[in-house]
Amino acid sequence: MTPRETAQSYDNLASHWNCDKFNRENGISQHKRALRFSKVKESAIDIGCGSSGRIIELLLSEGFEVEGLDISPEMIRLAKERNPQQVFHQADICEWNFPKRYDFISAWDSIWHAPLEEHEAILKKLCDALEEDGILIFTSGGVDAPQDGSNPFLGQPLYHAALGIPKLLEIVGQNGCVCRHLEYDQQSKQGDHLYLIIQKVDQGGASNG
After folding, report:
1. For 55-73, what is each residue's pLDDT tens digit?
2. Which residues have a Cβ under 8 Å from the Cβ of 206 and sit 6 or more positions away?
3. Relative to the CA of 21, which of 15, 47, 50, 201 has its CA 20 to 30 Å away?
4. pTM for this entry
């Protein structure tokens, strides 16, 4: 699937993320773990923010100034309704350039929808967008080698891709960051769900976690 096709699928799914049936605790405990590594709580951005607002609201409660980005126009419309004071960007992360650096970046269940061939560049872009000691939390498939495929969700086609754990850690290390936490938080027959907490380190060496 192309990013444009993914945006269309998420336009059709946007109301699900915004309804009472959506599990607003999804990813929250993992973000709270990531926040324990955060030293400066000034600027943050939620990549693939969706319409639920749950991660943005958590970061706001921690004192961050928070922005959101999503490829889906309908997701952005609903996100603005929920949090009208925040800055939102409707854009494709494959093409979008960060306007500044951030102390905290979330990419929860989002960048894995980008085409596999774009993943290395996206992860490098995310690492480059961190302030010193900044934190990145993101999800991937729990695989050892590059892999991609499509699965439907609520009747909408969705593409997923993963570089594999060795390549993820290689890219992180090559771009001035270290992995503070890696966990298989969901395991199923459909595939394993992995999240990583990454920290930008200073030029003199690794930061203390």
Report:
1. 999 999 999 999 999 999 9
2. 178
3. 47
4. 0.93
Which residue type occupies 126? L
Kindly tell me if the per-residue pLDDT of 203 is higher than 80. no
Residues 6 or more apart from 124 whose CB is under 8 A from it? 171, 174, 175
CATH architecture observed for domain 3-200 = 3-Layer(aba) Sandwich (3.40)
Write out the DSSP string of 35-79.
HTT-S--SEEEEET-TTT-HHHHHHHHTT-EEEEEES-HHHHHHH
Give the separation between CA 33 and CA 51, rounded to whole angstroms: 23
Between helix 28-35 and helix 54-61 the angle, nearest 10°, is 30
Residue 103's φ and ψ, nearest 5 degrees, are -80, -20
Transcribe 93-149 into DSSP letters: TTT---SS-EEEEEETT-GGGS-GGGHHHHHHHHHHTEEEEEEEEEEEE--SS-EEE
